[in-house]
Task: inverse folding
């Protein structure tokens, strides 16, 4: 399939409840922010993930990896650059770069793979118009 | 209805991810621990909340309050005393005392009210055998 | 002390990770959103909570209560109205109303009391200029 | 350095607040459970992570990856097998297998790399006795 090169940027501020006693964004919360970034990217494409689920298409995470480079602290605004790196019949792969806005320092680099499943959790083909939408940029 | 006086005690250790940068259990996480305590209490009664949901009975929170007295820190074992203070046809009220195990200091006192609803979110009568079970002690 | 009547409104979208298997915002997460609302209110006053902590003033929660009226779902935008209802030498009280933006339905009403403490957790007087700032509107 | 082959097993029950509206453990929460598993492993070695932090040694995550194989649901007991796969002067690598207890199905496989830093966040050598402790099995 044609592979996309589109890049989407979103910003999110680190919440107090997302820090831990080391004074930084707890690493598990990074995956919440990445999810936020890719669903906002979808919204920009004119589709919400909520509509997808209502239509019977669910995206479940099958793989995720992240490398941390620098800490993100409370109240830091993070800039998350998201790219779709690969779309297959049943999977969507994203790559992310997370930067601190105030100094541009790279906080993390990450990748995720989503699988498209139905209500029962069985893998299903990504709807053609979504695949097209995601691949065409 | 007859009102119960039963008391149930459970212990839970504060996780690293539950702390915030002040070095204490983030207050929002206390409500997660209270939920844990009351579902463990239910399990002791021979019923799991999972079974309740599978049977079509959902307990949703309609009211919660908490007063904090002392901080709970990472790795502290908390002792949560839970009592059912009132059972009506559609509601269950719990009261909680949370103590630090190592020194017995009172960390928090809390109360919650749960409403019984169906899959559609409409209030429904608590099943008789559950009401009896909860009220009889 | 003079009591404030100021009202601040902020909006926040419910994240996927904030829902639970009942398909609604988990009740514990409401307290994270209230914290967000009151710190954004502070920012509007020209002060960030981050600066307060850096200056040695910490606001810890001493009391919180919430009544839920209607569910908030994934991707719902919530409108949080925040008022400071009382400022004493060591405490700040807030009241909140949380509404669903798309239909204006009241989701929850809540109140919190914060205590001002120092790095060691000892109650300390709220700095005069902050108290003035908070009380003068 | 000598490389360890030790395996540690711990069990943890999925909390309601850890599910999302798909009815499964939200993927971000898996990393919280892995952290739990490795700190419990440390405790078994006679050391707590709390003591480490008090002594000035902090372990920060520098890399994490996870592959999900099957969903974990509310109230499922998960069996987490943890192995230390590599210890260098400044890093500790763990590998994990997460299984559902009731049917033995593999839920996820994961790997993490921790870096040892001081209070200021600067990489520091892992204390010799800890390195020895971790490597000797």
Result:
């Amino acid at each position: 399939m044609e592979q996309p090169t589109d890049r989407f940027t979103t910003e999110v501020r680190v919440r107090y409840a997302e820090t831990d006693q080391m004074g930084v964004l707890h690493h598990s919360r990074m995956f919440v922010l990445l999810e936020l970034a890719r669903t906002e990217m979808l919204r920009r494409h004119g589709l919400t993930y909520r509509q997808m689920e209502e239509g019977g298409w669910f995206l479940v995470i099958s793989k995720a990896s992240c490398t941390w480079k620098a800490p993100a602290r409370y109240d830091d605004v993070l800039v998350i650059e998201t790219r779709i790196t690969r779309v297959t019949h049943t999977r969507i792969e994203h790559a992310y770069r997370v930067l601190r806005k105030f100094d541009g320092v790279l906080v993390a680099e990450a990748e995720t793979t989503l699988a498209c499943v139905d209500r029962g959790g069985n893998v299903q083909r990504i709807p053609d118009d979504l695949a097209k939408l995601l691949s065409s940029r």
